[in-house]
Amino acid sequence: MQLNRQREKIVKTIPLFQVDAFTSQPFSGNPAAVCLLDKIADARWMQAVGAEMNLSETAFVWREADGFGLRWFTPTVEVDLCGHATLAETGG
To answer: Is 76 exposed, middle or buried, given 0-12, 13-18 or 19+ CB atoms closer than 10 A?
Structure first.
């Protein structure tokens, strides 16, 4: 008898938010996506998430021993810095 084994699919939930920076009003301000990671992720994956979110920037943040790691992606490229996405990461 042959056992039919299925691969167990592991699904991990990764917190991903759309935040409106520079405003206290819903549906206004400057939107950015914020993705909270356990650790740094593959740049190709982060770029794909940025493309899927299709906002001017998607920010990725993770805890490091001496603070936090931050990276920002537009729908097409990684950028060195993004002010409104950084502010969105802080909840502002």
So the answer is: exposed
- 6 within some domain: no
Q: Which residue among the candidates 8, 57, 64, 78 is catalytic per the annotation?
A: 57
Residue 9 domain-assigned (yes or no): no
Task: Give the pLDDT confidence of 3-61 residue by residue, as tens digits.
Answer: 455 556 667 889 999 988 888 888 888 899 999 999 999 999 999 999 999 999 999 99
The CATH number for 76's domain is 3.10.310.10
Catalytic residue status for 57? yes
Count up the domains in the chain and report the number: 1
